[in-house]
Description:
mainly beta
Amino acid sequence: MRSFCPHCGTQLTFEHDDAVDELDVTTCSLDDPERLPPKDHTRTSSKLGWVKLADDLSEYREARYEQ
């Protein structure tokens, strides 16, 4: 389920039935996104082929708690 700003329509959050304890907040919807840098990359199985992750953060094809 996605939530949106009722005034401008910007996507704000995303919830997935397979991860009921998680709530994803869209980075660009934050007033100061620089204050919350990512800790990892999740669901990389759906990233576009031309996206190259050049940092040293952990990558998870689906959920963070993968082994």
